[in-house]
Design goal:
Elements: E1 2-4, H1 5-16, E2 24-27, E3 34-36, H2 39-55, E4 63-69, E5 73-80, H3 112-122, E6 126-132, E7 136-144
Parallel strand pairs: 2-4
Antiparallel strand pairs: 1-3, 4-5, 5-7, 6-7
Helix pairs in contact: 1-2, 2-3
């Protein structure tokens, strides 16, 4: 379904904000970004990225979301300043039921990034995790607009 990607992301962010203590900021270009995305998959993708960022970040530390486009591909980035993912865990963190070895007593099922992986794959996209333990995480998702 053709949707306004900026409006869609803003709607998901507005839905997640009351559930988290961290401020969620959103930057995007002035021009509209039209995308043929599945709303349910897109909502799962962004919601899981936001909740993961919030779950592993200190209260009140900002989470930055940005959306851009080159006309063919949209780039969605979610960046936090949380505990980060240990390098050794990055290899398997996208698999179901896998969690970082440094999660401590934080609740979670280990399904969030597996859901993100499935949503990105079904949209024929790619994604990358940049993370350093103690220094936060940036997840960058590239999704075709059509």
């Amino acid at each position: 379904m053709l949707l306004d990607a900026v409006q869609f992301c803003q709607q998901v962010i507005d839905e997640v904000q009351p559930q988290v203590s961290q401020p969620l900021s959103f930057s995007y270009p002035a021009e509209p970004i039209k995308a043929l995305w599945d709303r349910r998959l897109g909502r799962s993708l962004l919601t899981n990225l936001l909740l993961n960022a919030a779950n592993y970040s200190p209260s009140n530390s900002p989470i930055q979301v940005s959306l851009s486009s080159d006309g063919e591909v949209a780039t969605l980035t979610v960046q936090d300043v949380g505990r980060g993912i240990p390098v050794a865990d990055l290899v398997s963190i996208r698999e179901a039921f896998q969690r970082g070895s440094n999660v401590g007593d934080r609740p979670g099922s280990g399904l969030g990034l597996a859901i993100v992986h499935t949503a990105v794959t079904l949209h024929r996209g790619t994604w990358h995790i940049d993370s350093a333990e103690g220094a936060g995480t940036t997840v960058t998702v590239h999704l075709l607009l059509e």
